[in-house]
Amino acid sequence: MLIKGVALLAACYIGGQLTGETLGRLLHIDANVGGVGFAMLLLILSQNWLEKRGWFQQDIEDGVQFWSKMYIPIIVAMSAVQNVRVALSSGLLALLAGIIPVLVCLATMPLISKLNKKAE
Amino acid sequence: MDYLTTVLVKNGLIVAFLVTGIIVYFSEWLSKTLTNKKIPGSALAIVTGLVLAYIGGMVTGGKKGIADIPQLSGFELMGGNMFRDFAIVSTAMGASFGIIKKTGLAGIVSLFVGVVFSFVAGAVIALAMGHHDAASITTIGAGACTFVVGPVTGTAVGASSEIIAISIAAGVVKSILVTIGTPLIAPYIGLNTPQAAMIYGGLMGTTSGTAAGLAATDPKLVPYGAMTATFYTGLGCLMCPSVLYLLVKAFY
Protein backbone atom coordinates (compact mmCIF):
# COMPACT_ATOMS: atom_id res chain seq x y z
CA MET A 1 0.00 0.00 0.00
CA LEU A 2 1.45 3.27 -1.23
CA ILE A 3 -0.22 5.11 1.64
CA LYS A 4 2.34 3.71 4.11
CA GLY A 5 5.06 5.77 2.45
CA VAL A 6 2.83 8.83 2.22
CA ALA A 7 1.95 8.41 5.91
CA LEU A 8 5.63 8.08 6.88
CA LEU A 9 6.35 11.26 4.94
CA ALA A 10 3.37 12.98 6.58
CA ALA A 11 4.57 11.92 10.05
CA CYS A 12 8.05 13.31 9.38
CA TYR A 13 6.53 16.49 7.95
CA ILE A 14 4.31 17.11 10.98
CA GLY A 15 7.15 16.20 13.36
CA GLY A 16 9.48 18.61 11.58
CA GLN A 17 6.91 21.41 11.50
CA LEU A 18 6.23 20.97 15.23
CA THR A 19 9.97 21.05 15.98
CA GLY A 20 10.35 24.18 13.84
CA GLU A 21 7.42 25.93 15.53
CA THR A 22 8.70 24.96 18.99
CA LEU A 23 12.20 26.19 18.19
CA GLY A 24 10.71 29.44 16.89
CA ARG A 25 8.89 29.97 20.17
CA LEU A 26 11.99 29.14 22.21
CA LEU A 27 14.00 31.68 20.18
CA HIS A 28 11.20 34.25 20.57
CA ILE A 29 10.84 34.81 16.86
CA ASP A 30 7.42 34.57 15.31
CA ALA A 31 8.56 32.07 12.67
CA ASN A 32 8.88 28.38 11.92
CA VAL A 33 12.62 27.79 12.33
CA GLY A 34 13.86 25.14 9.90
CA GLY A 35 10.73 22.97 10.07
CA VAL A 36 11.40 21.64 6.56
CA GLY A 37 15.03 20.85 7.41
CA PHE A 38 14.06 18.97 10.56
CA ALA A 39 11.43 17.02 8.63
CA MET A 40 14.10 16.01 6.09
CA LEU A 41 16.40 14.84 8.88
CA LEU A 42 13.53 12.86 10.39
CA LEU A 43 12.82 11.19 7.04
CA ILE A 44 16.48 10.19 6.51
CA LEU A 45 16.76 8.90 10.08
CA SER A 46 13.51 6.94 9.96
CA GLN A 47 14.46 5.45 6.60
CA ASN A 48 17.80 4.27 8.02
CA TRP A 49 16.06 2.97 11.14
CA LEU A 50 13.50 0.99 9.12
CA GLU A 51 16.16 -0.37 6.75
CA LYS A 52 18.28 -1.65 9.65
CA ARG A 53 15.32 -3.63 10.93
CA GLY A 54 14.33 -4.88 7.49
CA TRP A 55 10.98 -3.11 7.74
CA PHE A 56 11.59 -0.80 4.81
CA GLN A 57 9.43 -1.97 1.90
CA GLN A 58 9.23 -1.01 -1.74
CA ASP A 59 5.74 0.49 -1.38
CA ILE A 60 6.98 2.78 1.40
CA GLU A 61 9.68 4.05 -0.92
CA ASP A 62 7.18 4.41 -3.79
CA GLY A 63 4.84 6.47 -1.63
CA VAL A 64 7.61 8.94 -0.81
CA GLN A 65 9.05 8.86 -4.34
CA PHE A 66 5.73 9.94 -5.78
CA TRP A 67 5.93 13.24 -3.91
CA SER A 68 9.61 13.55 -4.70
CA LYS A 69 8.71 13.41 -8.39
CA MET A 70 5.91 15.96 -7.88
CA TYR A 71 8.53 18.37 -6.51
CA ILE A 72 9.29 20.23 -9.76
CA PRO A 73 5.60 20.53 -10.84
CA ILE A 74 4.74 21.92 -7.41
CA ILE A 75 7.61 24.41 -7.69
CA VAL A 76 6.22 25.38 -11.12
CA ALA A 77 2.77 25.95 -9.58
CA MET A 78 4.40 27.90 -6.75
CA SER A 79 6.16 30.24 -9.16
CA ALA A 80 2.82 30.76 -10.97
CA VAL A 81 1.22 32.26 -7.84
CA GLN A 82 3.97 34.74 -6.99
CA ASN A 83 3.60 38.49 -7.28
CA VAL A 84 5.84 38.72 -10.34
CA ARG A 85 4.25 41.93 -11.61
CA VAL A 86 5.73 43.82 -8.68
CA ALA A 87 8.98 41.85 -8.56
CA LEU A 88 9.82 42.70 -12.18
CA SER A 89 10.59 46.28 -11.23
CA SER A 90 13.60 44.85 -9.35
CA GLY A 91 14.72 42.61 -12.20
CA LEU A 92 18.38 43.56 -11.90
CA LEU A 93 18.44 42.54 -8.23
CA ALA A 94 17.22 39.02 -9.07
CA LEU A 95 19.77 38.72 -11.87
CA LEU A 96 22.71 39.86 -9.71
CA ALA A 97 21.60 37.76 -6.71
CA GLY A 98 21.49 34.74 -9.02
CA ILE A 99 24.87 35.23 -10.71
CA ILE A 100 27.34 36.75 -8.23
CA PRO A 101 26.92 34.17 -5.41
CA VAL A 102 27.63 31.38 -7.93
CA LEU A 103 30.90 33.05 -8.93
CA VAL A 104 31.85 33.60 -5.27
CA CYS A 105 31.25 29.92 -4.47
CA LEU A 106 33.09 28.73 -7.58
CA ALA A 107 36.15 30.65 -6.42
CA THR A 108 36.30 28.54 -3.23
CA MET A 109 36.19 25.21 -5.13
CA PRO A 110 39.99 24.76 -5.62
CA LEU A 111 40.54 25.51 -1.93
CA ILE A 112 38.08 22.86 -0.73
CA SER A 113 39.44 20.33 -3.25
CA LYS A 114 42.90 20.90 -1.81
CA LEU A 115 41.52 20.35 1.70
CA ASN A 116 39.97 17.08 0.53
CA LYS A 117 43.27 15.84 -0.95
CA LYS A 118 45.10 16.68 2.27
CA ALA A 119 42.50 14.74 4.28
CA GLU A 120 42.96 11.71 2.05
CA MET B 1 -19.83 29.28 -20.62
CA ASP B 2 -21.02 29.83 -17.07
CA TYR B 3 -21.24 26.15 -16.25
CA LEU B 4 -17.72 25.57 -17.64
CA THR B 5 -16.37 28.16 -15.22
CA THR B 6 -18.31 26.53 -12.39
CA VAL B 7 -16.80 23.13 -13.14
CA LEU B 8 -13.27 24.58 -13.31
CA VAL B 9 -13.66 26.54 -10.06
CA LYS B 10 -15.23 23.61 -8.22
CA ASN B 11 -12.33 21.32 -9.20
CA GLY B 12 -9.56 23.88 -8.78
CA LEU B 13 -6.75 21.62 -7.58
CA ILE B 14 -7.31 19.10 -10.40
CA VAL B 15 -7.33 21.92 -12.95
CA ALA B 16 -4.00 23.07 -11.50
CA PHE B 17 -2.58 19.54 -11.94
CA LEU B 18 -3.71 19.56 -15.58
CA VAL B 19 -2.41 23.03 -16.40
CA THR B 20 0.95 22.41 -14.64
CA GLY B 21 1.29 19.16 -16.56
CA ILE B 22 0.73 21.01 -19.82
CA ILE B 23 3.30 23.66 -18.81
CA VAL B 24 5.91 20.99 -17.98
CA TYR B 25 5.20 19.05 -21.20
CA PHE B 26 5.45 22.22 -23.28
CA SER B 27 8.67 23.26 -21.50
CA GLU B 28 10.34 19.91 -22.08
CA TRP B 29 9.43 20.15 -25.75
CA LEU B 30 10.87 23.68 -25.89
CA SER B 31 14.01 22.52 -24.07
CA LYS B 32 14.55 19.74 -26.60
CA THR B 33 13.75 21.56 -29.83
CA LEU B 34 14.83 25.12 -29.10
CA THR B 35 17.80 24.83 -26.71
CA ASN B 36 19.02 21.28 -27.48
CA LYS B 37 18.47 20.48 -23.75
CA LYS B 38 21.03 23.16 -22.76
CA ILE B 39 18.35 24.78 -20.62
CA PRO B 40 16.57 22.04 -18.64
CA GLY B 41 12.83 21.61 -19.09
CA SER B 42 12.28 22.16 -15.37
CA ALA B 43 14.02 25.56 -15.47
CA LEU B 44 11.94 26.58 -18.50
CA ALA B 45 8.77 25.37 -16.75
CA ILE B 46 9.55 27.50 -13.71
CA VAL B 47 10.20 30.52 -15.91
CA THR B 48 6.89 29.81 -17.71
CA GLY B 49 5.21 29.73 -14.29
CA LEU B 50 6.69 33.13 -13.45
CA VAL B 51 5.57 34.51 -16.83
CA LEU B 52 2.02 33.21 -16.23
CA ALA B 53 2.10 34.77 -12.76
CA TYR B 54 3.07 38.06 -14.38
CA ILE B 55 0.22 37.78 -16.91
CA GLY B 56 -2.19 36.89 -14.09
CA GLY B 57 -1.06 39.94 -12.16
CA MET B 58 -1.44 42.22 -15.18
CA VAL B 59 -4.92 40.90 -16.06
CA THR B 60 -6.40 40.97 -12.57
CA GLY B 61 -4.22 43.47 -10.73
CA GLY B 62 -4.08 40.97 -7.84
CA LYS B 63 -1.21 39.67 -5.72
CA LYS B 64 -1.55 35.92 -6.21
CA GLY B 65 -0.34 35.67 -9.78
CA ILE B 66 -2.31 33.25 -11.94
CA ALA B 67 -4.43 32.12 -8.97
CA ASP B 68 -6.30 35.45 -9.11
CA ILE B 69 -7.99 34.21 -12.27
CA PRO B 70 -11.01 32.31 -10.81
CA GLN B 71 -10.75 29.40 -13.25
CA LEU B 72 -7.16 28.81 -12.11
CA SER B 73 -7.64 29.47 -8.39
CA GLY B 74 -6.56 25.88 -7.63
CA PHE B 75 -2.96 26.98 -8.16
CA GLU B 76 -3.11 28.66 -4.77
CA LEU B 77 -3.44 25.25 -3.09
CA MET B 78 -1.03 23.34 -5.37
CA GLY B 79 1.60 26.08 -5.23
CA GLY B 80 0.91 26.83 -1.57
CA ASN B 81 3.19 26.23 1.41
CA MET B 82 1.75 22.87 2.44
CA PHE B 83 2.25 21.00 -0.84
CA ARG B 84 5.59 22.70 -1.45
CA ASP B 85 7.14 21.78 1.90
CA PHE B 86 5.71 18.26 1.71
CA ALA B 87 7.33 17.66 -1.69
CA ILE B 88 10.65 19.15 -0.58
CA VAL B 89 10.83 16.88 2.47
CA SER B 90 10.23 13.85 0.23
CA THR B 91 13.38 14.60 -1.81
CA ALA B 92 15.54 13.77 1.23
CA MET B 93 14.61 10.13 0.67
CA GLY B 94 17.61 8.01 -0.30
CA ALA B 95 20.23 10.37 1.03
CA SER B 96 22.13 8.43 3.69
CA PHE B 97 24.39 9.55 6.48
CA GLY B 98 26.78 6.73 5.57
CA ILE B 99 27.54 8.20 2.15
CA ILE B 100 27.88 11.71 3.54
CA LYS B 101 30.40 10.32 6.03
CA LYS B 102 32.46 8.89 3.17
CA THR B 103 32.51 12.30 1.49
CA GLY B 104 34.44 13.35 4.54
CA LEU B 105 35.13 16.79 5.79
CA ALA B 106 35.28 18.39 2.34
CA GLY B 107 31.67 17.55 1.51
CA ILE B 108 30.41 19.05 4.74
CA VAL B 109 32.68 22.09 4.43
CA SER B 110 31.48 22.68 0.86
CA LEU B 111 27.85 22.54 2.02
CA PHE B 112 28.39 25.14 4.73
CA VAL B 113 30.60 27.33 2.52
CA GLY B 114 28.05 27.03 -0.30
CA VAL B 115 25.09 28.09 1.86
CA VAL B 116 26.86 30.79 3.87
CA PHE B 117 28.79 32.38 0.98
CA SER B 118 25.74 32.38 -1.32
CA PHE B 119 23.63 33.85 1.46
CA VAL B 120 26.15 36.58 2.32
CA ALA B 121 26.74 37.49 -1.34
CA GLY B 122 22.98 37.63 -1.96
CA ALA B 123 22.40 39.66 1.20
CA VAL B 124 25.13 42.16 0.30
CA ILE B 125 23.57 42.62 -3.15
CA ALA B 126 20.14 43.13 -1.56
CA LEU B 127 21.63 45.78 0.73
CA ALA B 128 23.44 47.48 -2.14
CA MET B 129 20.18 47.62 -4.10
CA GLY B 130 18.41 49.42 -1.28
CA HIS B 131 16.69 46.80 0.87
CA HIS B 132 17.27 47.55 4.54
CA ASP B 133 14.84 45.35 6.48
CA ALA B 134 16.04 42.05 7.93
CA ALA B 135 13.27 39.93 6.39
CA SER B 136 13.95 41.14 2.82
CA ILE B 137 17.75 40.89 3.12
CA THR B 138 17.46 37.37 4.54
CA THR B 139 14.98 36.21 1.89
CA ILE B 140 17.08 37.47 -1.04
CA GLY B 141 20.21 35.96 0.53
CA ALA B 142 18.28 32.69 0.82
CA GLY B 143 17.12 33.02 -2.79
CA ALA B 144 20.77 33.16 -3.79
CA CYS B 145 21.00 29.64 -2.29
CA THR B 146 18.19 27.98 -4.30
CA PHE B 147 14.71 28.83 -5.53
CA VAL B 148 13.38 26.62 -2.75
CA VAL B 149 15.33 28.04 0.19
CA GLY B 150 14.22 31.55 -0.81
CA PRO B 151 10.45 31.10 -0.51
CA VAL B 152 10.72 28.75 2.49
CA THR B 153 12.80 31.35 4.32
CA GLY B 154 10.65 34.22 3.09
CA THR B 155 7.51 32.59 4.44
CA ALA B 156 9.19 31.78 7.76
CA VAL B 157 10.51 35.30 8.39
CA GLY B 158 7.40 37.02 7.00
CA ALA B 159 8.78 38.63 3.85
CA SER B 160 6.41 40.15 1.29
CA SER B 161 5.27 38.22 -1.78
CA GLU B 162 7.25 40.58 -4.04
CA ILE B 163 10.49 39.82 -2.19
CA ILE B 164 9.70 36.10 -2.29
CA ALA B 165 9.16 36.38 -6.06
CA ILE B 166 12.57 38.09 -6.40
CA SER B 167 14.17 35.31 -4.35
CA ILE B 168 12.60 32.68 -6.63
CA ALA B 169 13.75 34.59 -9.71
CA ALA B 170 17.31 34.74 -8.30
CA GLY B 171 17.20 30.99 -7.66
CA VAL B 172 15.97 30.34 -11.19
CA VAL B 173 18.74 32.52 -12.65
CA LYS B 174 21.22 30.48 -10.60
CA SER B 175 19.72 27.16 -11.75
CA ILE B 176 19.97 28.17 -15.42
CA LEU B 177 23.49 29.53 -14.96
CA VAL B 178 24.72 26.34 -13.25
CA THR B 179 23.05 24.15 -15.88
CA ILE B 180 24.66 25.97 -18.79
CA GLY B 181 27.92 26.87 -17.05
CA THR B 182 28.89 23.53 -15.46
CA PRO B 183 30.14 21.75 -18.62
CA LEU B 184 31.94 24.93 -19.70
CA ILE B 185 33.83 25.46 -16.44
CA ALA B 186 34.39 21.78 -15.49
CA PRO B 187 37.88 21.43 -17.08
CA TYR B 188 39.15 24.55 -15.28
CA ILE B 189 38.10 23.52 -11.76
CA GLY B 190 39.01 19.82 -11.96
CA LEU B 191 35.43 18.65 -11.99
CA ASN B 192 36.09 15.10 -13.19
CA THR B 193 35.97 12.86 -10.09
CA PRO B 194 33.11 11.78 -7.80
CA GLN B 195 34.81 13.65 -4.94
CA ALA B 196 34.97 16.87 -6.95
CA ALA B 197 31.34 16.38 -8.01
CA MET B 198 30.29 16.05 -4.36
CA ILE B 199 32.12 19.26 -3.46
CA TYR B 200 30.63 20.99 -6.49
CA GLY B 201 27.11 19.86 -5.57
CA GLY B 202 27.64 21.15 -2.04
CA LEU B 203 28.88 24.53 -3.25
CA MET B 204 26.21 25.09 -5.91
CA GLY B 205 23.22 23.48 -4.23
CA THR B 206 20.55 23.94 -6.87
CA THR B 207 19.60 20.29 -7.38
CA SER B 208 18.01 20.70 -10.81
CA GLY B 209 20.86 22.90 -12.07
CA THR B 210 23.61 20.67 -10.65
CA ALA B 211 22.02 17.45 -11.88
CA ALA B 212 21.41 18.83 -15.36
CA GLY B 213 24.81 20.53 -15.54
CA LEU B 214 26.71 17.42 -14.43
CA ALA B 215 24.72 15.30 -16.89
CA ALA B 216 26.09 17.48 -19.67
CA THR B 217 29.63 17.17 -18.22
CA ASP B 218 29.78 13.46 -17.36
CA PRO B 219 26.63 11.44 -16.51
CA LYS B 220 28.62 9.30 -14.05
CA LEU B 221 29.07 12.33 -11.80
CA VAL B 222 25.34 13.10 -11.48
CA PRO B 223 24.42 11.00 -8.43
CA TYR B 224 27.41 12.32 -6.44
CA GLY B 225 26.69 15.96 -7.16
CA ALA B 226 22.95 15.60 -6.74
CA MET B 227 23.45 13.81 -3.42
CA THR B 228 25.24 16.72 -1.72
CA ALA B 229 23.02 19.21 -3.54
CA THR B 230 20.04 17.47 -1.90
CA PHE B 231 21.49 18.30 1.50
CA TYR B 232 22.09 21.89 0.46
CA THR B 233 18.40 22.77 0.29
CA GLY B 234 17.80 21.13 3.68
CA LEU B 235 20.76 22.91 5.23
CA GLY B 236 19.66 26.20 3.65
CA CYS B 237 16.11 25.76 4.95
CA LEU B 238 17.58 25.03 8.37
CA MET B 239 20.14 27.86 8.52
CA CYS B 240 18.62 30.77 6.58
CA PRO B 241 15.46 31.35 8.66
CA SER B 242 17.33 30.64 11.92
CA VAL B 243 21.05 31.35 12.47
CA LEU B 244 21.57 33.52 9.39
CA TYR B 245 18.31 35.44 9.93
CA LEU B 246 19.26 36.17 13.55
CA LEU B 247 22.70 37.31 12.33
CA VAL B 248 21.12 39.74 9.84
CA LYS B 249 18.65 40.87 12.50
CA ALA B 250 21.53 41.75 14.82
CA PHE B 251 22.67 44.38 12.31
CA TYR B 252 19.36 45.58 10.80
If you had to describe this structure to a student in words, what would you say it looks like?
The complex is a heterodimer of chains A (120) and B (252). By secondary structure, chain A is mainly α. Helices cover 81% and strands 0% of the residues of chain A. Chain A has helices at residues 3-26, 35-52, 58-69, 71-80, 84-87, 91-119. The longest helix of chain A has 29 residues, at 91-119. Helix content of chain B is 77%, strand content 0%. Chain B has twelve helices and no strands. Chain B is globular. At the A-B interface, helix 1, helix 2, helix 3, helix 4 and helix 5 of A face helix 2, helix 3, helix 4, helix 5 and helix 6 of B.
Largest sheet of chain A: none
Query: Largest beta sheet of chain B, briefly?
Result: none
Count of DSSP-assigned helices of chain B? 12
Number of strands of chain A: 0
What's the number of structural domains of chain A? Answer: 2
Protein structure class of chain A: mainly alpha
Distance between the termini of chain B: 53 Å
Number of domains of chain B: 2
The low-pLDDT segments of chain A are: none
Q: Which structural class fits the helix and strand makeup of chain B?
A: mainly alpha
Shape of chain A: extended
Lay out the secondary structure.
The complex is a heterodimer of chains A (120) and B (252).
Chain A: H1 3-26, H2 35-52, H3 58-69, H4 71-80, H5 84-87, H6 91-119
Helix pairs in contact in A: 1-2, 1-3
Chain B: H1 2-10, H2 12-33, H3 41-60, H4 75-78, H5 81-90, H6 97-128, H7 134-143, H8 149-157, H9 161-185, H10 194-204, H11 207-217, H12 222-251
Helix pairs in contact in B: 2-3, 3-9, 6-7, 6-10, 6-12, 7-8, 7-9, 7-12, 8-9, 8-12, 9-11, 10-11, 10-12, 11-12
